[in-house]
Specification:
The complex is a heterodimer of chains A (412) and B (426).
Chain A: E1 5-6, H1 7-10, E2 14-16, E3 22-32, E4 40-48, E5 54-58, E6 62-65, E7 69-72, E8 88-90, H2 91-95, E9 99-102, E10 107-110, E11 113-119, E12 122-129, H3 132-138, E13 154-156, E14 160-161, H4 174-177, H5 181-190, H6 193-202, H7 205-214, H8 217-225, H9 229-237, H10 241-250, H11 253-261, H12 265-275, H13 282-285, E15 292-293, H14 299-309, E16 318-323, E17 333-339, H15 340-345, H16 352-355, E18 357-358, E19 365-366, H17 371-381, E20 385-389, E21 395-400, H18 401-408
Parallel strand pairs in A: 2-7, 15-16, 19-20
Antiparallel strand pairs in A: 1-11, 2-3, 3-4, 3-8, 4-5, 6-7, 9-10, 9-14, 11-12, 12-13, 16-17, 17-18, 20-21
Chain B: H1 2-17, H2 20-27, H3 31-44, H4 52-73, H5 77-122, H6 132-154, H7 157-169, H8 172-180, H9 185-193, H10 201-214, H11 217-230, H12 237-267, H13 276-287, H14 289-322, H15 336-354, H16 360-386, H17 389-392, H18 399-425
Helix pairs in contact in B: 2-7, 2-11, 2-12, 3-10, 3-12, 4-11, 4-12, 4-16, 5-6, 5-11, 5-13, 5-14, 5-15, 5-16, 6-15, 8-12, 8-14, 10-18, 11-14, 12-13, 13-14, 14-15, 16-18
Classes of the chains: A alpha+beta (412), B mainly alpha (426).
Chain lengths: 412, 426
């Protein structure tokens, strides 16, 4: 097995020219991002022995890459330093000791060392060492036999995501984007606010909204604060009303007023109505974005309507039938409910009012009802969701069993 | 009505932010602190009370830096030190912190033991054939360590914080025992605001000790990590600063009462005291037995409080620096190193106190030296982090705030070196 090379072995190494004269010491390695799987190390930063200046020297000058001494292929006078390009990043300054996302393990880890390897004769960054062996190597104790039980652990460069350094965040690793929003949320909670802001912003706003909903409440505000107004508005516009209500309730009034102003009219109205209810009452728990239908429709109408509107709902299980002038725009008295199953099974020409299950008033709940009462009703009638009526007995939303569970088991 | 409601909401909101600052500052009043303050009061009466005002300012200022660091970066102090000062410096610092914190943990368990010694001596429990007092002390240390362990390992952050905040209430024991000691209040208050000096070396060393025990690195590791763990945002910065401000003032008020209680009884009657147990006993003839019991109870409370926080602080620091999982909200399986360090410190800390003839004094002295050596480096790191504009952005310390920080550092380092060198001259 060829010996492995690590960044830490070259930091502070002496640089000598072809006449064996010391010219300086290595402070950092510079890698350049490209389309390739692993970034190539294209230059190093050297402190000049005489002028004490920091110079960027192309890696191609190196004739022999030894661990304590690096020999150049030319004389001191022939060394030409180069400029930094936007694709460059510094391995010591930007990555070593910093936090990085381990995409496969969906967690944030600290970079203890970087493994370097030759690909077609050129040095590349292959993986990061996150093990305690990396730490031992840094303090020069890795060769002690008593520590031989500490094994190195590498994460392939492809499976990591750098955050908030000089690397442009537009290059989000494809692996990261594939993660479940809940996993992304866990990662984001472990990052510093600025980094998590960067990460959220680089996601598309729909994913960002889902991730945001998965964040622990105490982190949401801090993270929103670290991104700009426009992205915030974008993210909020992708969130369902009940999540928005929860969020607005948790932040200072002045802030929520400002944010609410940026929502579209319809959402704003719905949110303003619900914000006034306590968290553990039906009003605080309910979801107002539910599929509504008109009793005068036929089953075929209902199917067409579902096809047309289904994009705006995460899940559809029931259609709530409302006696309203135009049927579906919210408000109105609740007439009944029809399951998706009935809509599929029933004769297309049948009228909804014939097929739907009527809802007795005793099986609905007042907007001010407390959570215990809701849970009791769900258990008693074996319901997975309960319709909520306001004080004028208008239908305003639904509390699902998930909403109730989340109140009882908040940490899950 | 609306006004009241709005303000009430503000109070509730503050209570939700409150915690890290008050807990840290109060925990600084640990068994070692109480011994130092009480002995200072016993030896010099009201003469050193004035030192509490500069001490409060020091505490407010340094905790404020830590608050800002925690909120802006949401990283613990050790992680920040690692990122800025890299592995070698961080590890050297951590080794010293570990020694210092371990010794301090031992002294907390010794404090638990002392508090029961005061009680058992008073009840003359060791008078008979069976040394009931010693047995009581042993049981107290074992039970305390088990309770602390279960409480942290099984608890989550919010619950742990609530219990800590409740423990703070029991510091009122010192307020009551001070009143029972019937001090000369006008003189006490006057001594608080009018500094008195003496060139007596003993006076100077005690003064340095009083100021020095207030600032210990473990407090900042704990403070900063819990701010990060709590996820307090930039908008709550003001409230969080109030939290540490209230904590610093509160803790100094408690110190005031501890010193007053000792001054009004032991100093006034010119009793020779050396240890914290002596003070507990000596209070009784002058302030009544309740004052003695309250003093012992206060010591027990403070010791158990700090005995929980010190191992936590150490575990936070080491794990953050080395990139291991941390957090009270995590379980043993999720953060094995964090809980192992915590468990190891509690177990060995308690065990050492239980071993007869263990070199307690040596361990505590070693810990004081380690603390003394760490402090200058720690302060410099803290200030360098605070003024790092890349890290802190608009919250970076600038101008007068920055210079005040360095002034404090110079004063503290001077005092620190004096304390370290003190044994050479006496």
């Amino acid at each position: 097995m060829p010996t492995m090379l690590f960044l830490s072995q070259f930091l502070d190494a002496q640089v000598v020219d072809s006449a064996d004269k010391t010219v300086g010491k290595i402070l950092d390695f510079i890698a350049t991002t490209s389309e390739k799987k692993y970034p190539e190390i294209t230059a190093f930063v050297m402190r000049d022995r005489h002028t004490k200046e920091e110079k960027i020297i192309p890696f191609s000058y190196i004739a022999n890459l030894g661990k304590d001494e690096v020999t150049l292929d030319r004389l001191e006078g022939k060394i030409q330093s180069r400029e930094i390009s936007p694709q460059d990043f510094f391995l010591y300054r930007d990555i070593l000791d910093k936090q990085i996302v381990d995409v496969e393990g969906t967690r944030v880890v600290r970079v203890n060392d970087l493994q370097i390897g030759m690909i077609s004769g050129k040095p590349h960054v292959l993986s990061i060492d996150i093990s305690n062996r990396g730490i031992l190597r840094r303090i020069g104790l890795d060769r002690l036999r008593i520590f031989s039980f500490v094994k190195p652990r590498f994460i392939d460069w492809e499976k990591v995501q750098m955050i908030g350094s000089s690397l442009k965040l537009s290059t989000l690793s494809s692996e990261l984007v594939k993660l479940h929003p809940a996993d992304l949320a866990n990662i984001i909670e472990d990052l510093a606010p600025q980094q998590s802001g960067h990460l959220i912003k680089s996601l598309d706003s729909e994913t960002a909204a889902k991730v945001f909903e998965e964040l622990e409440p105490q982190f949401r505000y801090a993270i929103m604060k670290s991104i700009d107004q426009r992205s915030t508005t974008e993210i909020l516009s992708h969130m369902p009303v009940d999540e928005l209500v929860d969020y607005f309730k948790s932040i200072p009034k002045r802030e929520s007023r400002k944010l609410m102003g940026n929502l579209d009219e319809e959402k704003k109205k719905a949110v303003q109505k619900l914000v006034q209810y306590e968290d553990d009452t039906a009003g605080g728990l309910l979801t107002s974005e539910i599929l509504r239908g008109n009793p005068n429709w036929t089953i075929a109408d209902a199917r067409d309507y579902i096809k047309e509107i289904s994009d705006s709902f995460r899940t559809i299980n029931f259609m709530y039938i409302v006696n309203d002038k135009d049927g579906v725009s919210g408000g109105g008295k609740l007439a009944g409910v029809i399951s998706l199953r009935s809509i599929i099974v029933a004769n297309p020409s049948e009228k909804i009012s014939k097929v739907m299950k009527r809802i007795k008033k005793s099986q609905t709940i007042n907007v001010n009802a407390e959570i215990e009462e809701i849970a009791e009703m769900m258990t008693k009638y074996n319901l997975s969701s309960v319709a909520v009526l306001d004080d004028e007995e208008k239908f305003i939303g639904v509390v699902t069993i998930d909403d109730v569970m989340r109140q009882f088991v908040p940490d899950a | 009505m609306e006004f009241l409601k709005e303000n009430w909401k503000k109070v509730i909101f503050f209570l939700s932010i409150m915690g890290p600052g008050i807990i840290t500052a109060t925990a600084g009043n640990d068994s070692g602190g109480i011994a130092t303050y009480a002995v200072a009061g016993a030896q010099f009466g009201y003469g050193l009370l004035w030192a509490l005002i500069p001490v409060a300012i020091l505490l407010i200022y340094t905790l404020d830096i830590s608050t800002k660091l925690g909120i802006v970066t949401r990283l613990g102090l050790a992680a920040l030190i690692r990122e800025k000062f890299r592995v070698k410096l961080t590890i050297s610092l951590l080794i010293l912190v570990l020694i210092a914190n371990f010794g301090t943990t031992v002294s907390e368990f010794a404090g638990i033991s002392s508090s029961f010694q005061i009680i058992s001596n008073e009840l003359n429990l060791n008078g008979g054939d069976i040394p009931w007092g010693t047995i009581l002390q042993t049981i107290a240390v074992i039970l305390s360590s088990i309770i602390i362990w279960i409480f942290i390992v099984k608890g989550n952050y919010r619950r742990v914080e609530k219990v800590f905040l409740t423990l703070i209430v029991f510091y009122a024991a010192y307020v009551i025992s001070a009143f029972l000691a019937k001090p000369d209040w006008p003189v006490a208050v006057k001594s608080l605001v009018v500094p008195t000096f003496s060139t007596d070396p003993a006076f100077l060393f005690t003064m340095v000790g009083v100021i020095g025990t207030t600032i210990a690195p473990w407090m900042y590791f704990y403070h900063n990590s819990t701010i990060a763990e709590k996820g307090i945002s930039e908008d709550d910065l003001k409230l969080s600063r109030i939290d540490s401000c209230v904590g610093s003032i509160l803790t100094n008020i408690i110190v005031f009462f501890i010193m007053v209680a000792a001054a009004a009884t032991i100093f006034v009657n010119k009793l020779p005291v050396k240890t914290v147990e002596d003070i507990g006993h000596s209070l009784i003839p002058f302030a009544g037995e309740y004052a003695g019991y309250l003093f012992a109870f206060g010591l027990f409370n403070a010791s158990i409080f700090a005995a929980a926080i010190l191992p936590l602080s150490t575990a936070y620091a080491i794990c953050e620096a080395l990139g291991w999982e941390t957090g009270i909200d995590k379980g043993f399986r999720e953060a094995p190193q964090f809980y192992s360090i915590f468990t190891g410190m509690i177990a060995t800390g308690a065990l050492i106190v239980l071993i007869p003839h263990a070199p307690l004094l040596f361990i505590m002295r070693l810990s004081q030296v380690a603390n003394g050596v760490v402090l200058p480096f720690f302060l410099v790191y803290l200030l360098l982090l605070a003024e790092d504009e890349k890290l802190m952005g608009k919250y970076a310390a600038r101008g007068i705030v920055r210079w005040f920080g360095w002034l404090i550092a110079v004063i503290l380092i001077g005092l620190d070196i004096t304390l370290l060198a003190a044994p050479l001259f006496t």
